[in-house]
Amino acid sequence: MTANTPRPPRGRRTAIAVGIAAALTGVLAGCGHSGGSPASKPTTRIPAKAAASTAAATDSTLHMITNEGHRLAFHVTPGHQPAIVLDAGGGLDSSYWKKIVPELSARTGSEIITYDRAGMGASDPVPGPWKAQDAVSDLEAGLTALGATRHVVLVSHSEAGEIATYITGQHPGQFAGAVLVDAALPQFSTDTEIARVAAATRPEVEQIQAKDPKARTQAERQLLAVAAGYVPDQRAYHQAVWPAAVPADVIVSEQTPFPTSPPDAEAWRAAQSAFASEAPNRHLVTAAGSSHDIPLDRPDIVEAQIEAMAATVH
């Protein structure tokens, strides 16, 4: 996407809410914190109806889990194993899955876990540049505290694909499979796309930097955190490898995240296809008639792929 490329409509609450370029290339719209192994503490259980939270389903329970000094909101709908973990895209929280969670619970009987990344929903904000391993550490801490340490089915939309790539690479034995929903994949982050995205985002970043820090929105603060290390972070992500032992279903939208930029749309499709073709336990599915918001436009496809993946877990 060049700096002159028209931006997609902003009328819908999509995963590009934190800035078109940043959200679509796998750079997470979270806030960084010091890395290291998860330092989780016992969870605090609060009934979702009684909490001022973004719990995805009315019968879920909110667990506030502490990692590296900040609290993260994990919402759990009870059920049997395998646990299904839903991770929303940039600028979004667990409420993005609110229509899918009850259906998945009914169809699979599985435990459903959604969560708010740092700075989103009911989770604490954490200042500083965003780093992928910080987001991985947060998810690790939450799943460990909740006992979801084996046979997990991970569902990742948009920029959450970067978290999925790193966490499955570090803990392949923890995950039975993944459903990648128009997810940002390493194959997309070529030098060409990194440069185009950085150029497209620069005017918006400069505009935000000129504002009074107190007047910046949550999304604007997150975009600045992402932009701080965008180029080196994406170059590193391009080298990441998905573990061969973890099967993945890849759902790509018909419109892609770049409906107004044919070169970037083609690069996105090519990345999805290349990833799916690298191993026999990966499958590519096109969500006909869908925008980048496949969970909103075609929840039937997302639910069917998750159900099929969960059914393979023994």
UniProtKB/TrEMBL annotation:
Limits of the AB hydrolase-1 domain: 84-303
GO cellular component term, pick one: membrane
InterPro entries: AB_hydrolase_1 (IPR000073), AB_hydrolase_fold (IPR029058), AB_hydrolase_sf (IPR050266), TAT_signal (IPR006311)
UniProt-recorded Gene Ontology molecular function terms: catalytic activity
Protein name: Pimeloyl-ACP methyl ester carboxylesterase
Organism lineage: Bacteria, Bacillati, Actinomycetota, Actinomycetes, Kitasatosporales
